[in-house]
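Hello, quick one for you while I still have it in my head. I'm working through a protein record and want to make sense of it properly. Would you mind checking whether the tokens look sensible for this chain? I owe you a coffee for this, so here goes:
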Amino acid sequence: MADAVRATVKAEPVEVVTAGRGVVVALHGDHDLTTVESLKQAVDEAVAAGARGVVVDLADAELICSVTLAALLWCRERVRRAGGRFVLSGPLDGRCKAMVISGLDRVFEHAPVREQAVELALVDDAASAAGRGRFWRLTVGPAVQLVADDVDD
């Protein structure tokens, strides 16, 4: 009897899905220096197309490294400066360990599932303006640091 052949289809690391006035950017697999540009490009294109809310879904991400965390901060600021709202979705367990250790889990708006995150991202109220005028940057060196810079818009 012949051995069964098993084929594995690898999903693209960054998948973009339109959700009403918003966009969901779903991350699949490992995310490091090789994937940050596609993440940033997807968010930049969504904002340029007029998306009011951007959700980055981490549910299928296997690993999020510190470089990806810096890219997520960049994405958050890009969306915020365009007047939109940036929300993460999916579990922040072991795969996002660097996010929890660095304290960034307290910086990002987050919902446990995609549908809730989309709803949150599209809420248009005064709370969405919270944090305006403050830019967060992540410095990665011997230690990971989160630094707040006040910025006049």
Notes: The helical segments are 36-48, 66-81, 97-102, 114-121. The chain has one domain: 14-150. The two ends are 70 Å apart (CA to CA). The longest helix spans residues 66-81.
